[in-house]
Amino acid sequence: MSDESRTSAAAGNVFYRKLHRHMPCIVRGKGVWLFDDAGKRYLDGSGGAMVANVGHGVEEIADAIGVQAATIAYVNGTVFTNEPVEALATLLARKAPAGVDKAYFLSSGSEAVEAALKLSRQYHVERGEPERRVIIARTPGYHGNTLLALSASAREHYKRFYGPWLLDVAMIGAPYPYRAGPDGERSPEMTGDALERAILAAGARNVAAFIAEPIGGSSTGASVPPPGYYARIREICDRYGVLFIADEVLTGAGRTGTFFALEHYRARDGSAIVPDIITMGKGLNGGYAPLSALLVHSRIVDVIANGSGNFQHAQTYSHNPLSAAAGLATMRYLDKHRLVERSASVGRVLQQRLRDALMDRDEFPIVGDVRGIGMLVGIEFVADRATKRPFARALKVAETLIDLALARGLMLWPNTGHADGTNGDLVIVAPAFTISEEEIDELISRLRASIADLVKHLAQIPV
Ligand code: PLP
Predict the structure, then answer these.
(1) Looking at the 3D structure of the chain, how many domains does it have?
(2) Residue 440 needs a FRET pair 20 to 30 A away by CA distance; which of 164, 192, 370, 459 works?
(3) Is 457 helix (H, G, I), strand (E, B) or coil?
(4) What burial letters (b/e) apply to 264-277, b meaning 16+ CB within 10 Å?
(5) 70 C-alpha vs ligand 1 centroid, how far in Å?
(6) Same domain, 380 and 310
(7) Is 350 in the same domain as 313?
(8) Residue range of the domain that includes 396
(9) 212 and 94 in one domain?
(10) What is the C-alpha separation between 47 and 56, in angstroms, rounded?
(11) Beta carbon of 143 within 6 Å of any ligand 1 atom
(12) Which of 282, 304, 336 is at the close of a domain?
């Protein structure tokens, strides 16, 4: 590969998403480390887009994929079943709350969300409630980039060109403790009461589904809703016959220290919160092959089985054996090495060390908050720590930090716009659960140096 095609996204024949970025060519990965073709190594501090939960280069997962590819790589999921799909569905049903025991496999998180929302509509129509068509989602929040998933996402910059094709989705405020306002935990966004108001405003019999990330992903930067929030959400959904879709694309498979993030919450009687549909992606495949899933309560599947008999969501690569083999091997690896437990215990170390390293007011006045749970940490940057005023979007603080960190051999994940829809800068730290404590210290040392670079960079910009 020539130097030019290696580093410039605009050169060569690949149409990349970021056309102005110079992208190193990664040739190999091991654990939390990535190696480019120039010999530079990068600490993958976010597992790419919060995907590589078990680390890169796990040979037993690669072997399982190789064996499956040689055995049977593709059959059509409307005609045949296959062993890895059956085994993975059984494994996931055992991990999911009781009753959520039917798995439908697709390729990406967006596809899983799209299918979950469509399924909620089909379920209501087949039950004889065709007026139920309103979807309620939260802002900030993100559910994907296909048109229905994007409609349910509060990402204005992603919607910019596609407005005429998007659907109206009712939005309520997401629980976002750092920016909760004067009422704090009593505000309707934080108690969950905002959902009831939105349902009543839309007309209770018109609402099909409420979709939410149980613990905030990139959109609210690992914000953790208050303890009683999901008990209230479940009660409201039950009262009005609204399906509750827990979007665990980012948080599922152990990222927050429990297999599903919703496990951090309990109903008032101490029982598990049982969503109607769970979406998964990212960590489900660990990055080894595109794979997502919706886990569906059998009560919903039964309505369709006893009605049309057909979920109207055809995709060529649904229930794919090769992807399922990758997912199955990843889940078995997770279990064998008790990596969800490790995500909780090492996550506590990661959270504490990051807070200790970054919250010093004099050293890093631009760090407003460090928060999260398990191996999911959000670091929010502000122009003024006292007022939490965000930086002006034009300064591109999060994007600049990502580039500065990459130059120092550290990969992080950015998010923007969460403070008020336009402004707001945060980065996500979400390494593989296998990261060692020495590697955590290395991550933090590179991060501190990158933030110091950012502070210098901002100081040079005339006000
Ligand atoms: N849902 C959540 C919570 C996500 O974080 C994402 C991606 O970041 C998606 C859905 C969409 O997944 P994908 O990018 O695999 O389509």
Answers:
(1) 2
(2) 459
(3) helix
(4) bbeeeeeebbbbbb
(5) 30
(6) no
(7) no
(8) 3-54+338-459
(9) yes
(10) 9
(11) yes
(12) 336
- Mean confidence (pLDDT) of the chain: 96
Do 288 and 376 have their domain in common?
Answer: no
| Pair (130, 178) in one structural domain | yes
Ligand 1 contact via 142 beta carbon (within 6 Å): yes
Same domain, 314 and 349: no
Task: Looking at the structure, tell me whether residues 288 and 388 fall in a common domain.
Answer: no
- Count of positions (residues) in the chain: 463
At 427-455, the pLDDT tens digits run 999 999 999 999 999 999 999 999 999 99
Q: Is the pLDDT of residue 1 over 50?
A: no
What span, in angstroms and rounded, lies between the C-alpha atoms of 250 and 216? 9
pLDDT, tens only, 103-114: 999 999 999 999
Structure confidence at residue 2 as a pLDDT band (50, 70, 90): very low
Q: Which of 295, 311, 336 is the last residue of a domain?
A: 336
pLDDT at 361: 81
Q: Is 113 in the pocket of ligand 1 (CB under 6 A)?
A: yes
Cβ of 46 below 6 Å from ligand 1:
no
Ligand 1, closest atom to CA 247? 3
- Phi/psi of residue 181, nearest 5 degrees: 85, 180
- Reported as a single tens digit per residue, the pLDDT across 83-122 is 999 999 999 999 999 999 999 999 999 999 999 999 999 9
49 lines ligand 1 (CB under 6 A): yes
% helix, strand, coil for the chain, step of 5: 40, 20, 40
Confidence of residue 181 (pLDDT cuts 50, 70, 90): confident
Domain check: are 331 and 345 in the same one?
A: no
Mutation probe of ligand 1 site: the residue of 105, 106, 111, 113 with most atoms within 8 A of C-beta: 113
